[in-house]
């Protein structure tokens, strides 16, 4: 069985999160952590994460901190999702690039700021549910 690794980050900036709103025609939009597939040229998971964060959000980050790992078994490929938090040190949306923006079949990837409150995280429909539970338990401010 083949294994594919993905690196994702909940990006932190003061009392907000920078996430990606995903959408497809006819689908229900949701938010998720910024990130994607580890590629052969990536030195390690943090390097893959830094590359993905620049591609999808145009952001540079400080040292990522691991928070959660989820394994998604499949018939041909098992996908291991490595989730981190990271503080934003620079942000330039004009630097966003990558194949996902060129293929309309992948849907939309829109960076959005979400307040670090339980109400805002719940309203954003943060996915996957395990990530939402972690963020609600460990990263949001008091109600």
From TrEMBL:
The keyword tRNA processing does not apply. Coiled coil: none annotated. Transmembrane segments: none annotated. The keyword Hydrolase applies. One of its GO terms (molecular function) is hydrolase activity. Keywords: Hydrolase. InterPro entries: NUDIX_hydrolase-like_dom_sf, NUDIX_hydrolase_dom. It comes from Actinacidiphila acididurans. Residues 2-139 form the Nudix hydrolase domain. This is NUDIX hydrolase. The lineage of its organism: Bacteria, Bacillati, Actinomycetota, Actinomycetes, Kitasatosporales.
